[in-house]
User: What shape does this take?
Amino acid sequence: MWKRRNSVSVNVLKIMAVNLNLNTMPMLKLAYRFIVVLLLFLASAYAFACKVLPLPNEYPIQELSYRDELVVVYINRVANVHSEMYAYTDKFEGKIVKSYRGTLNVGENIVASHMLEEAQAACPVHLLEGEAYLMVLKPISGQLKYSRFNLYVNSKSKLFTTYVNALQANTRGN
Assistant: This one.
C-alpha cells in the first residue's frame, strides 16, 4: 500500500509540474518580450541623445571661414528654450570683450541667434547670462548667427585661458 500511495503522489507531482510549466510559459514569454521592448526603448533613447563636442588642446582656428568672427562675448541676456529633449539658447544679447578675427569691435553690443541646421547628434548651444564665452559668430544676411558645430568655450573652462593666450600670440605674430 505504501508503494501505491507513493507512486500516486509521484504521478500527481509529475502532472502538477507539467501543468506548472505549461502555465508559466506564457508568463516567461511575456517577461521576455517586456525586457526586449525595454532594451529597445532604452537603446532608441540613447540614439537620440546629443553629444557635446570635445574640446581639443589647441583652438582650431584653421577651420574657420574668412568671414567668421572669433570673439569673446559677455552675455547680458539670453532667450533659452526648454524643449522636451534639450535646453538651448535661441538668441542672446551681449558685449564684445575681445575680438581676434573679423570686423566686430571691443565694446560693441550685439544680438545673435542660433543657426537652423541639422543636429547630427551634436548638442545645441546653451549659454548662461553673466558669463563670457569664446565663440565664433557668422554674419549671415546682416545678422549674427552661431552654430552648434563651432566651439564655444565658457571663460570658467580650463581651456579658455589656453585658447585665449594662443590666439593673442597668433594675433601679435600677424
